[in-house]
Write a structure and sequence with these properties.
The chain is an alpha/beta fold. Helix content is 27%, strand content 18%. It has helices spanning 20-26, 86-97, 119-127, 132-144, 171-185, 225-232, 238-249, 267-276; strands at residues 11-12, 56-59, 71-79, 101-107, 149-153, 193-196, 216-224, 256-264, 287-293. The protein has a 9-stranded mixed β-sheet. Helix 5 (171-185) links the parallel strand 5 (149-153) and strand 6. The protein is globular and about 50 Å long.
């Protein structure tokens, strides 16, 4: 997905009746048993706040969720090349003013396509120590932030469709790179939590860096009605798409968060997803949050299915 340079985004959240200790460890509304069920007059596509329910979050570069109730976490994306570290202070101030914590996704490349390395070049540079000082600089700024922070590095690594330069590396190379990032940043950003975040494919466990390197596990779940009808002949549900990845990671014993969530389709399809994503489901007892990706898709879906629009407004 194309990441915008606007780093101010937000996550609406409300504590679920499950995984309360996990939420507390992450700073995501510890001790709260119920969501705020009053969300006001928002369009149908906005994820509903369940009562009780799973914490809801949003990556929101357009500010569509700036007044959404029960918001507790703010998600920001940043590249580590052409990095704008000062934007993290801005995001921190914005989050604290609204009582939110931070989820920071660090992408190990440049957002300028002309400046990007090949997958092999990036792998060799990371493992060879070229980005060690960059990692330390990012960690130092994170250590100075006043909000609780969860760091998500090199997401969707097992997806081989060419979206990210780091996706599709050999598992051993990815694990070595992830551990290098952690080993260099964690002693500096000592209070931060770390999220290992595969996409959800069947081979994701090959890339697991180990229990000591992850406090929480992220997954990506997107519902695109056009794709559903073309490939499956019917609409699929949030729980149906989540299940395959969730079943693979639940055995690690970590809180699970849908770190990127989106849905696009007709009014009925959208309404079903909006109503279901935060509802407590005993089948997903370790689900500790869902994070809506409020932007247009920047990477074409396979087989000419086009570019879905995840935006709620």
């Amino acid at each position: 997905m194309k990441r915008r340079r606007v780093l101010v985004n937000m996550l609406a959240a409300a504590a679920a009746p499950v995984a309360l200790s996990a939420l507390g460890r992450l700073g995501w509304g510890e001790g709260e048993l119920f969501a705020d069920s009053t969300v006001g007059n928002f369009p149908t596509k906005y994820p509903r706040i369940s009562h009780p329910g799973v914490p809801l979050g949003v990556y929101d570069p357009h500010g569509d969720f700036k007044d959404y109730p029960s918001v507790k976490i703010e998600h920001v994306f940043m590249p580590w090349q052409d990095v704008e570290l000062s934007a993290l202070y801005t995001a921190d101030t914005y989050a604290r003013a609204r009582g939110r914590t931070l989820l920071i996704t660090i992408e190990p490349w440049s957002w300028s396509e002309d400046s990007r390395q090949t997958p092999d070049q990036l792998r060799d540079a990371v493992l060879g120590g070229h980005y060690d000082e960059t990692i330390k600089s990012i960690a130092k700024v994170i250590s100075e932030l006043k909000s609780p922070v969860t760091i998500r590095w090199g997401q969707e690594m097992e997806d081989t469709r060419g979206r990210f330069a780091w996706s599709g590396w050999k598992p051993s190379d990815y694990i070595a790179a992830y551990r290098r990032f952690y080993d260099l940043s964690h002693p500096i950003a000592i209070k931060a939590k770390y999220m290992w975040s595969p996409m959800g494919h069947s081979n994701l466990t090959d890339y697991y860096p180990g229990d000591a390197y992850a406090d929480v596990i992220g997954l990506s779940v997107f519902g695109f009605q056009k794709y559903d009808k073309g490939k499956f002949g019917r609409d699929r549900t949030f729980g149906e798409i989540l299940k395959s990845g969730y079943d693979l990671v639940v055995g690690f014993g970590k809180p699970v968060v849908v770190a990127e969530l989106g849905y696009d389709g007709d009014e009925s399809y959208v309404a079903n997803w909006a109503d279901s994503v935060t509802k407590f489901d005993a089948s997903f007892s370790q689900l500790a949050g869902v994070v809506y990706f409020d932007d247009k898709e920047g990477h074409p879906w396979p087989e000419n299915y086009g570019l879905p629009d995840w935006r709620v407004a």
